[in-house]
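Protein modeling request. Please complete all fields; requests missing the sequence field cannot be processed.
Requester role: graduate student
Desired output: 3D structure, token encoding
Chains: 1
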Amino acid sequence: MTARIEFFPLGNADTLRLDLADGRKILFDYAAMRNCNDPQDKRCDLPVELRRDLDKASRNYFDAVCITHTDTDHCKGFGDFFWLEHAKTYQSDDRVKINELWVPAAAILEENLKDDARIVRAEARHRLREGKGVRVFSRPERLKQWLEDQGLNFEQRKHLIVDAGKLVPGYEKDRAEQVEFFVHSPFGWRQDENTVVSRNEDSIVMHATFQEAGTESRLFLGSDANHEILSQIVQTTRRHGNADRLRWDIMKLPHHCSYLSLGPERGTDETVPDPDVRWLFEDQREEGSYIVSPSFPIPIKGTEDDKSNQPPHRQAANYHRRISKACDGVFEVTMEKPSKARPKPFIYKVTAQGIALELSAPMVGNTAAAETPRAG
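Delivered output (376 residues):
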């Protein structure tokens, strides 16, 4: 089967699903943001969308669910939707199961969490104690200390921990799944040095390489990384001779099109990126590539939304639009597609010719038509 990448329109929130060539399904973040009591809320009904897809596949589970960090816009509704192992409260028949939960080490270590963030932590800690059904990203000494404080043997659980600069076990581009995941962040040394966990700085940033009929296509998953973290990723990756791990055909834009994922200053009409970040966005993108901003519509200049400190930021969007045009690329915003109801998810197919946006219409036989592949 053809691998697919699906972005869900959820306002300033992240959920992305990968359907792999071997039929496995991986969910990156879960943010059920829509207010079902508000008919004007244009965000999609995430639980309905995901259950519909699982029903079509005759399954009630995801092979992996990655919570990149525990901010509300990445885990809202986690405790309502999933079948969780740590407490019977979360084990009703209508819940969706998780074969393997992926979390950053910060999700284990952080204290004073509330709501769904606390539930994510409880589930991740339970699975780590049990020694199965979990992957923890980064290997700070504080995580080793936490395990020892729990009376657990670090050596017996280190196979569940994935360092930055490594591949996620169980996925290879030359096998049936036709994809591998390279971990860029979090850095263990940052978490050892920082006395306070910073969710955005310690979030999971990954690079996926798909292979279809000998053609490689690359997806960069930026979580909510700011420009400082992206700069460190670039410098570290280049220093280790892994620049190919930063090439991309499609990018999940970090932090909902915030200028802070580009540089320290918003700018008047266009954000000027940090030099390392500029290299990532301009030199490493392929001709005809896609940037997808999981965000509300870009504000119009001079409006109240334009003056807000909250993303999306017009100046950052202007930068992304300009560089996309320069390479025959596309800049998409999940909440900007016109619709009388709610915007539909963006679905991209991984083909032998590269990445292609799958169109909902017109229909060709029983399959939605797709644009000509733009990269790969």
